[in-house]
Batch of 4 targets.
Target 1
Amino acid sequence: MTQPVRHDSMRARNLGVVLGEVHRNGPITRAALAEITGLTKTTVSKMVGDLLDAGMVAESDALRDGERGRPGRAVSLSGGRVAALGLEVSVAYLSVCVVDLTLAVRVSHTQAVDNQVASPVETLAHLQKLAHRAVDEARSAGLVIAGSALAVPGPVTGGLFCTAPNLGWSNVRVGDLLNFPVTVENEANLAALGELWFGSGPLDFLRVSGEIGIGAGLVIDGRLFRGAHGFAGELGHMIVSPDGPACRCGGQGCLEQYADQKALLRAAGLARMPDLLTHLQAGEKRALRACERAGQALGIVLTSAVHLMDPGTIVLGGIFAPLFPWVHAPARETMTARLARMRRAVPELTVSRLGVDAATLGAAGQVIHRIIADPGTYVTTTQTGLAPR
């Protein structure tokens, strides 16, 4: 026999249906919402009322043209109350941001920190202080943090941060070391989602994240592809040359040994990325050659990615965004030469519009999209500030 649907479950579902349509089609009248969703006008009015009380939507006094019958007020998402916290631990910095329900960025802070010399406990204590600073600023603007997500530079499964050779971390339950609830996700995956939601990119693309380490996130039809075990996108450990230099992963000739931040600076004989950019702008030959070699290595690996995944667009982010003028041409030329043999089209190679903010924005955006998909939980449980454990 079919089990009866509980009233609270039906209400939660209807809230999600209504808020989802407001997100996709708003501003939209209650009458139009009833027509699109198939819910009764009474049910729609009750759901809109609950969402208004929760601060998730707002109604304007402006009348919407083109509606049949009596015009009504338009319902749209509201950015005035509900918000999400995005965080990132990178090898060289910590970052936090607060994004409201309309995906407007309300607070953003980044601090340069060498996390290679700190323990997980020390790094996450520092991040926690930065997070509470952001939450205090959000609260002063009348916002309530409904959830948080954290981007980390390595594979994550079941909340366990498996390994990050460039940080020296292994099997760390990051969420247990913070005093507020947080979901943990791979940085490259969240950067790809950030690109999707905040970068006005296409619905199908491969987003490459370059820092100290290289990762990638694959978006297919507007959805992130994680792989069978959540480890998809480890682009930095694809092989450029099997006889190449040893990598921290235990392999040889990985892309990271040719094209990540450490490899680029080592090849250019420099210590800092700002110095590399200065030398490139001045046309210094060793710096130019370092980027050319990195671009060629990137092109070799991206050719393999094209054969395997056939992305229409490849977005270069992280350090590859400021270095784009110098790595773009060698990467594309390498891909063109290799793909021509198979008569394969070369995907569009573009630069990220978000730079180093992509993963933090993607983390906050992931929470916002969960709220929109299931607002019932947040309507009843959202509390002021960042809830401690």
Target 2
Amino acid sequence: MPRSSAPQDFADRPPWTRPGFVASAALVLLVVIAGVLIAVLAPGGDGNDVGGGGSPANPAPAESDPEQPLPTAVPTTPPAGVRWELVGPLAVPVSATAGPKQVTETSASGFAHTPEGALLAAAQISMRSSYSLGREHWEPTIERQFAPSADRDRLLAELRASDASPADPGSQSQVAGFSYQSYTPDTAVIGLVLRAPSAGTPRYHVLSLTLLWQNGDWRMQAPPGGAWVSVNRVTSDLTGVVEWGAR
């Protein structure tokens, strides 16, 4: 028989060199590799699942952007969800969303960093700093909720030195409307409209109030020279004003 057709004898060769053994080993290796790929590439699989029957771990939620832009659109209608409460004879607005969040017998603070928050701060702080409420109200309000300045100090000094009696409750002006003169997240200038008691033609005082965002809250800027008359004008015309107040 020619040598090329003679049967090959593998009896004296190591088993791992035999063709049958090599083929079987290669098949087992392919099965193992396929199993690993399925485990890694399956939806939700991360290759680290332990326990067999457990659900794949949920991916961590994406972190929210801490630099979300603050709202700047000013309201053109009365803010919703506002109720009016009396502080002495004066009605002040309260909102669950715009503030104030902290209210004591003599102060209100914690307003939202929004146009509505600035509006409620303007109404609350200006009313609570009224001389007619008494020193227990206007003094802590001006000390804590007005931005520090020489004008604030002068306002405080003049009120402390005044010997005038508080005005009669029936003669107090009440909030009747507002108009935004300008607004940014740092500074709000609001025309707060007060209705003066009158038996004849209605008269309104428009106080041009400046609110500054400082130390996590809206704070009033004292009027120039500490005199409210410097930011007040009297009118009977409410054109451009959003009517708003206790009813």
Target 3
Amino acid sequence: MSRAVIISDRRITGLSADVISELVADLGSLWHERHQAKLASRPRKRAVGAGAKHRLVFVDRLLAALVHLRPGVTHDVLACWFDVDRSTITRAIGEVRPLLAERGCTVSPGLRLRTLAEVVNHLGASRKTGIVDGTEIRVRRPAAGRKDRDKFVSGKNKQNAVKTMVVTGGDGRVLFCSPTMPGSCADMWWSYPCARATPIWSAR
């Protein structure tokens, strides 16, 4: 169901069904060759190709990467869409992104917003709406004995996490993603840089 919806609606990936089919044809065999070469490069107790099969086939890996890159959907949400573990999505995106880059699927030249200040000034100058949201990402519990171990415990979700602030445009396109902070960091901490400027923006 997720595959059919993503392919049928161009707004999700920015690509038509024909272009996605071309990417699958061009990159699918290359991904398979590299995957097999990686398996054969280390000592094994069973033959290459034996054992459990991929639950996430290449076309779904490609779609997950495209959806992540276009509207910035998180790995957790993609894992729910494709009914796999979050680590599977993370690994799939890490495998597909280099293939897309080799094919020339890179960011087009134009406006570059590298810092939060540049994003805020751009929104203010263009009188566009921005959406600011603090997002928590679950992480493994830091090793015992680490001095700042307790800082990763989120007071909101009571779990070990890191937090980042994401700024998108009114159309949902990601404009800025901040460096990660420990999960105990309050959401209000991220609002201080924004308070120095006066663009038209909304907090979600």
Target 4
Amino acid sequence: MIKGDNSFVPSVPLRIGVRGAGLDAMALLLTESGAVRGDGDVVFHGAPVHPSGTVRLTEAGGTAWLDVGLTTIEDRITRVLVVGSTAHGTIRDVAGLSVEAFAPDGTSVARYDVIDGAAETAMVLAELYRRSGGWKFRAVGQGYANGLAGLATDHGVDVAAPVAPQAPLPQQTPLAPPVPVAPVVPVAPVAFVPAPPAPAFALPPMPPVPPAVPVAPAVPVAPAAPGPLPYGPGYGPGWSYGPVFAPYTQIGRDNDVITVSGLPPGPVVVQLDVQGDGYTGLVVLDRRNKEKDYLVNSTEDDFRGRVLATVPDKGPLRLRLEAEGPWRLEVSPLAAAGRLTEEAVAYRGPEVLLHTGGVADLAIHYRGDDNLIVNVYELAGHDDHTALPRDENLVNEIGKRRETVPLPQGPLVVQFEAADGPWEARLKRV
């Protein structure tokens, strides 16, 4: 699977393997509101078993294993997030990062290799979510520049107070280290009880961890005042264009009007994730509260993408959202967008990428059936950081295709304005 893909998985106890050197794994159990209900819905090293017994975290052979009993999860839980975080370094530094789900007989039913990690320190790697009476697995790959604290806050976790660790489980005969190709031990269905039942195997000793993520009622995250960058001036070498601020995040459901106040004027990246099967639209509202710029106009199921918007000189950024189902919206500095490199990046939906090097060619492989539109903004000599220069259209085609187009010397903003389907892109040096 590539980022954004989803597929049905069997409604059986699954074992989710999270591989990656130096990565800490955890799970968040979310209700329909997109938030946890309390401490017990956060499963991590300090609390490795959900109170219902349906989700357990173990480690063996350098792999973190999340046993998820899909047949016994409470009805109120609609999503299970698989999360990874780093105490040292960033997600891009984690070698061999992948998430793979196995059925009880050892058959691999879904796998996602994370190849586009950036300077984040926390990421929602994948999720299991209810759909049409069953369960789906989605390759998410959503990183957080503000780390585990930002990820936790987005899902109703209060990071001000630690989660109390559960009592250690009794030690019994250890389970042999699991391997992907061998049959794995299924999670036995367990009825909900106030405390977790004794497991059929002993958890290996857990390494010490920092204070755990806490839990609070799910409320939209208030806009953060501009402050220090999460990592280094300009979010990395070779980039200093546009305003800099702490990302703003809001979650909700169905149609809404979103007001983002307190941001400096200039171009920003708006990421929108919608869990639903209907129409998704996102429009910038002007000072008269009239529709101005259409950012998203899609009929794709479970829409996900990043688009460009501009914070006005005076007043807040106002967005009108049309969506059917739960959604999450994040506004980030342009400098936080992903970088184009000679390694292929895989996405699904519209995207905003940066090119900071010299003259190069851009190789694109688009596997969608609808319109593919790619624009480029040349920033060399453009000193007005409150607006982008006029864009140049590179691609405007319909249907599956492979195409290579020339890019001038950076700094550039490369905007995949329309891409309803999976695609890959990489640089080819000239």
